[in-house]
Write a structure and sequence with these properties.
764 residues; alpha/beta; paralog of FGE (formylglycine-generating enzyme); TIM Barrel; 8-stranded parallel β-sheet; 13 helices
């Protein structure tokens, strides 16, 4: 009877009646049929609906295209269904912690475990039995679908759709959908299509904004045809927070699924750009987004995270469709190509441009706190060309007198910098004027920009430093989301206000991001024209960032690689330089070991950051130097900047269009961290009037037999010659292979973190 009453064809009055009939007592989960898809009376079965229309086009955001038919569960996996799984696989022991104690807390799904190890019993509150399971992590969900794939009962949870072999760590990219999987978690495209695509949309096949067949924000009326369980100043159900699956009985999307808007955030098989964080969709009872077609904000939910807001639904192949689903995971790993098929990835290369000439501009300089002429003189001696000015001379939020005082000081700083050949990127917090709707503050912003926009020393505007931290941490709930939804919009409106006054397209408008693997910085890209990544090396024990012995700089290289891919699809973005630190004297907040996270970068690490940013990220570099009296910093700055200046003509001449391609035989080496995120060897090719340059970055382990193959059309003759490494005292032979018309640098060694800049003379 309960199973029929809770169907999606029932009405709110029936739902209310059922709710009143339910008591708060706990009941023993009754035994069910061997097939978990068929639950006992009163409990939702795991119904599946087919998602057809294969080969559909993607939405405007690039999501939703799926070339095959598949099935997805009509409802989110329920507490009763998961309890059945626990009874089958965790009745004696629970080695993978499938059941969380938090399931009993407010907002939890009510699964309780009684008894001792060897004889566990699982019960649940009867009014939560048909609510979605929560307080589960991604690996719990993977083990659930493995159990489905292998026939339920006492079936194996470690093989099947996913080969887990006991893994429960944070690094989600380690595990991928296996070929031949019949049950699996939907990847981002599969989930998105099921939620938003409608092949019979009135104006032709396309996508709705919400998974309720509507472009209008849902309400919360259980009788409504466009409704969902989300936070709207209050919780829909203040006691349970969750609603039974299918409770919004008139709401279904085009294919017949329920609750893809609200109730619980649903984990997908796809990873967000950072290599640990899960892609979450659909909104929840504790978030305000109501299931809009934007990936849910996630700052810290990894594959092993649990939350009262997290649940999942499952997917499967259609009958006879096993061969049509060839590992359609959003983050699957492609097989390593053969050595003769290796090619460098095509990145969008967009250097900054000089605001006065429009020519490529490769910034190299310090950031500075105040108008200190002696420091500007020192930057001039080091041949810097830009300074990030972070003092409060752009503060104009309080009153007109503040504008009258600070604006002349800023113009004086611009004058002093310009006299020394430096351009100024000035940091400002003007977004507050647009976030808080303060007209007089907005007017002061316009006056400030009008006064500086034509100054020859102006490089641009830095709107924010580390916006990803402004929402707080440790929660997916409504308060965090509310702040994070406000900030990108405030930055976007700030940018629009500046552009309305300052029409020079080469004046940069950007933000700075930090701790990239923890950041959801992609949300901010539509709001700005460019961004930097601020990265310092960290201790190996820092969570997320330097696991299993890898350097903080490798996180930088990884960030650049994914950032470059993102830039390729966002034509509005200006170049994306990188903020870096150098020197063994760096400390954070005056504490050399700040909370056991930060450590002092060596010169070699900083050089790796700079060059791997060029090769792996492919869009430019920005080498900010923290001004300090530390002798080590000054030595390292001088040494690294001198090398950059040697390459500056080649960077300016050929950075956007590298003059030749490179092949090597080491693509696809697997690492335990950042697996397949950064090619093992990444390269950048340049030329100036006299030389070709091959910059090679080793992002992997020790390699004994590297041999680069290149086509170099401007080399004179075809005789063997010697090529050397810039500023190092070793060389190798360069020979011509007539069979492939390639030049080959003889085999040599590289250790992880090595940077070699090969200088290849065009003359014989």
């Amino acid at each position: 009877m309960l199973n029929r009453l809770f169907s999606c064809d029932s009405r709110c009055a029936i739902f209310t009646t059922v709710t009143l009939l339910c008591s708060l007592t706990l009941m023993q989960i009754p035994a069910s049929a061997a097939d978990v898809l068929q639950m006992s009376d009163g409990l939702r079965s795991l119904e599946m609906v087919e998602i057809g229309a294969p080969g559909n086009l993607p939405d405007d955001n690039g999501l939703g295209a799926v070339p095959y038919a598949y099935k997805i569960s009509k409802y989110e996996v329920t507490a009763a269904q998961f309890a059945e799984f626990l009874r089958a696989k965790a009745s004696k022991t629970d080695p993978y912690d499938l059941r969380s104690n938090n399931m009993e807390e407010t907002g939890g799904c009510g699964i309780t475990r009684k008894g001792n190890k060897g004889a566990y019993e699982y019960t649940l509150a009867d009014d939560l039995a048909n609510c979605p399971v929560n307080q589960v992590n991604f690996w719990d969900a993977c083990r659930f679908v493995n159990w489905l794939q292998n026939g339920q009962g006492d079936a194996d949870t470690e093989t099947g759709a996913y080969t887990l072999k006991g893994y429960t760590g944070e690094i989600g990219i380690k595990i991928h959908r296996n070929p031949g999987a019949k049950w699996f978690l939907p990847n981002e495209n599969e989930w998105y299509k099921a939620a938003y695509f409608d092949p019979k949309k009135p104006d032709g096949p396309g996508y709705w904004n919400y998974p309720t067949r509507s472009d209008t924000r849902p309400g919360r009326d259980l009788l409504g045809a466009n409704s969902a369980n989300y936070f709207d100043g209050t919780y829909l159900d203040e006691a349970k927070r969750l609603t039974p699956v299918g409770a919004f009985s008139r709401v279904r999307n085009a294919f017949g699924t329920c609750d893809q808007a609200g109730n619980v955030l649903e984990m997908t098989e796809t990873l967000m750009t950072p290599p640990f964080l899960r892609s979450l969709w659909g909104g929840s009872w504790g978030t305000k987004d109501a299931g809009v077609n934007v990936r849910s904000y996630n700052r810290d939910i990894t594959s092993r995270s649990e939350s009262e807001l997290l649940g999942f639904r499952v997917a499967s192949v259609v009958a006879g469709g096993e061969n049509g689903v060839a590992v359609p995971s959003g983050d699957s790993v492609s097989p390593s190509p053969a050595a003769d098929q290796v090619a460098e990835p095509a990145f969008a290369r967009r250097p900054w441009r000089d605001p006065l000439t429009g020519k490529p501009f490769f910034p190299m300089g310090w950031y500075i706190w105040d108008c200190n002429v002696s420091e500007l003189d020192e930057m001039q001696r080091e041949k810097c060309n830009v300074v990030l000015y972070v003092n409060s001379q752009t503060d104009i939020d309080e009153k007109d007198e503040q504008l009258a005082e600070n604006l002349p000081r800023m113009i004086e700083f611009l004058d002093q910098a310009h006299q020394r050949g430096l351009k100024v990127l000035m940091q400002c917090a003007w977004h507050q004027a647009f976030r808080d709707e303060v007209p007089e503050f907005q007017a002061r912003v316009v006056k400030f920009v009008q006064a500086v926009k034509d100054h020859p020393g102006l490089m641009g505007y830095q709107l924010f430093d580390e916006p990803e931290y402004q929402g707080g941490s440790g929660s997916l709930g409504q308060h965090l989301n509310e702040k994070m939804l406000q900030l990108p919009d405030a930055l976007r409106r700030t940018k629009e206000a500046i552009r309305a006054v300052d029409t020079n397209p080469n004046h940069v408008i950007q933000v700075v991001f930090n701790l990239v693997p923890l950041s959801s910085w992609m949300e901010f890209l539509p709001a700005v024209d460019g961004f930097q990544i601020d990265r310092y090396p960290i201790w190996n024990g820092a969570p997320y960032l330097a696991q299993e012995g890898d350097w903080g700089p490798l996180v930088m290289a990884w960030s650049c690689a994914h950032g470059a891919k993102e830039v390729r699809f966002r034509n509005h973005l200006n170049p994306v330089p990188v903020m870096q630190g150098v020197g063994s004297g760096h400390n954070e907040n005056g504490v050399e070991d700040d909370g056991n996270w930060w450590r002092n970068p060596t010169y070699e690490e900083t050089r790796y950051m700079a060059y791997s940013s060029l090769t792996a990220g492919g869009w430019g570099f920005l080498h900010w130097i923290r001004n300090s009296s530390c002798a080590d910093i000054k030595r390292n700055v001088t040494r690294l900047q001198a090398e950059f200046h040697q390459l500056m003509p080649a960077l300016q001449m050929s950075y956007e269009n590298p003059p030749f391609t490179v092949r090597h035989g080491h693509m696809g080496i697997k690492r335990s961290f950042l697996v397949d995120c950064v090619p093992d060897i990444s390269t950048l090719t340049l030329e100036d009037q006299d030389n070709y340059y091959l910059i090679a970055s080793n992002n992997s382990g020790k390699l004994e037999d590297i041999a680069f193959r290149m086509k170099l059309p401007k080399l004179k003759g075809d005789g063997a010659r010697s090529v050397s490494v810039l500023n190092e005292d070793w060389s190798r032979s360069l020979t011509y292979d007539p069979a492939t018309e390639e030049w080959v640098i003889a085999k040599h060694k590289m250790a992880f973190g090595d940077i070699n800049v090969w200088v290849i003379s065009k003359s014989e």
